[in-house]
Amino acid sequence: MDPFGCVKNQVDAENMMASLNASGWESAPDADDADIIIVNSCGFIESAKQESINAVLGWRRLYPEKKILLAGCLAQRYSKELGEALPEADLLFGNTDLAEIVKAAAKALGKKPRINNPAASGSKAEGLSAAGSLTGARPLLSLPGSAYVKISEGCNNCCTFCAIPLIRGGLKSRTIPDILEECKALLKRGIKELCLIGQDLGSYGLDLQKDGPEKKSQLPLLLEKLSKLKGEFWVRLLYIHPDNFPLPLLDLMEKDERFLPYFDIPFQHGSEKMLKNMNRHGNTKVYLSLIKTIRMRLQDAVIRSTFMTGFPGETEEDFAELLKFQELAKLDWVGCFAYSREEDTPAYNMKNRVAKKTATMRKSSIEENQIPISEKQMDRFVGREFTCLVEEKVEGEDRLYLGRLPCQAPDVDGSTVLSSDKELVPGTFVKGRVFARAGIDLELKVK
């Protein structure tokens, strides 16, 4: 399995692997030993789409006789087009019913029809239900000790730049009992960090309720149920739309330190005009107020965000407002993306498009400006004691390890370098003192 794209796609890959394993297939440690190569693709932005296509072409060059199955978002979104334009893939498989991967893999080996995409033929997308019984026992592609738990699929926010509703459909939330069972199974396996993911966690459960004044996010209720579970573990929330932030989360985090005060809130921009054109309903005043509230309530709150440059109509004045917002917000971590023009999104036909070169230069400015901000934000953890999740041993070094603190999410933030007088086990917690910062990374001495 060759996974691309976001962690939500990673969970899909894990569930497909679980379905295949349960049906008698075995994961090959090396492509040389495989009967079929599955590329689980991303179709979100142009660079990700090209990366997935290049993967198919690369595998075909290396293994001209093997079967290659293109799965995931790209196959879902462009099944008809790729069925005609990408003969290097023996079969295309969307993401509406992951359990069907078993039939698709068999079909690829039997040279059956090349498109196995229920949604492409007009059937309803079932989303998360496909491999539900296998979620807690699935193979994990994360580093030891951490697992992603997808609590919802799709999105109803309909940002004008975003193709997710086209690929994944509208919001479809899992039930709380279903999520709890998965979390229990993962904890029983020794997982120490449960990363809850979805397109927008703040909207979780809205689709499971009737319209009315009592309708509200069920995320706080889910966390309340999770708080009843016993044991030492972390719960990390990844991606909460700033317009849908449920403030009761802060109450729960004050009561239970296992709910990490880490917030991934994609503000996207600092210009009210740009936000409005993106179909965002907030503004910098509202967003700065949210940031202030979080930090006042939770001393060690860490806030990560993403910004977008080059959205149609973005002027120098708009970009200056984004830079000002970045300076005032002093976010701990920031990722930045240049706008990608995606077919069938409302922004696709917007006028006053920004030159790609300009968008890229603005992106670089944001990234350069963020480095000293992140460094200063990390300084506040130096000299203090924390629990750290050990992830892996540093190759060639004696008793030197890499891990993460509560302020660091998997893959996207800095790391913590651990020095220890004893052997450590990846996937376990240790306690230690942060004694230095090296760039955006932290250094910790294990007790």
Automatic annotation (TrEMBL):
Enzyme Commission number(s) from the entry: 2.8.4.4
GO CC annotations, alphabetized: cytosol
GO MF term set: 4 iron, 4 sulfur cluster binding; aspartic acid methylthiotransferase activity; metal ion binding; protein methylthiotransferase activity
Annotated ranges, domain MTTase N-terminal: 1-110
Record note on cofactor: Binds 2 [4Fe-4S] clusters. One cluster is coordinated with 3 cysteines and an exchangeable S-adenosyl-L-methionine.
Protein residues bound to [4Fe-4S] cluster 1: C6, C42, C73
InterPro entries: Elp3/MiaA/NifB-like_rSAM (IPR006638), Methylthiotransferase (IPR005839), Methylthiotransferase_CS (IPR020612), Methylthiotransferase_N (IPR013848), Methylthiotransferase_N_sf (IPR038135), NA-bd_OB-fold (IPR012340), Ribosomal_uS12_MeSTrfase_RimO (IPR005840), rSAM (IPR007197)
Pfam families: Radical_SAM (PF04055), TRAM_2 (PF18693), UPF0004 (PF00919)
Binding site for [4Fe-4S] cluster 2: C155, C159, C162
Name of the protein in question: Ribosomal protein uS12 methylthiotransferase RimO
Origin species: Leadbettera azotonutricia (strain ATCC BAA-888 / DSM 13862 / ZAS-9) (Treponema azotonutricium)
Gene: rimO
